[in-house]
Amino acid sequence: MVDCDLATLQTREPKALRNLVNKHLFVKDAIMQGVTEAIKALHTRGWAHNNIRPEHVLVTLNRPYQQPPGVNTYWPVLTSYKACAPFGRPVEFIDSDGIPKRLTSDMSDYEGLELVGACVERILMNLWYR
After folding, report:
1. Which pLDDT tens digit goes with each residue over 16-65?
2. Could you name the domain of life of the organism this protein comes from (predicted)?
């Protein structure tokens, strides 16, 4: 089991990464589907996460629900909800670099999803091609 964020996995040396993560279970589609489902769950309730990035996505082998029998893949858990806000509401927060940010809620969720996807691609390249 790995409970680690994507940004940390991305920084691992390829050999250490392969020792930590079973490349056959690290499936991009499962990770991206899980993050997308988390975003949709928030959006259907009228809320936006506003701070989706690789360091806020944990991966784990223990998916607590909806696991089909015999299916084992790493599954994402979206964290860091301090920037959540109702749609259309201006949001002000200080990011991890200490920089104040202001944005309209829900604008950045799918941009954040693209960042997560790029990070997963880099991890997969380290797992398979080095």
Report:
1. 777 777 776 777 888 888 899 999 999 899 888 888 888 888 887 665 55
2. Eukaryota
Angle made by CA atoms 9, 5, 16, in degrees to the nearest 5: 25
Check if the beta carbon of residue 116 is closer than 8 Å to that of residue 35.
yes
DSSP secondary structure, 74-88, as one string: -EEEE---TT-EETT
Indicate the domain borders of the chain: 4-129
Give pLDDT tens digits for 66-82: 556 666 677 788 888 88
* CATH class of residue range 4-129: mainly alpha
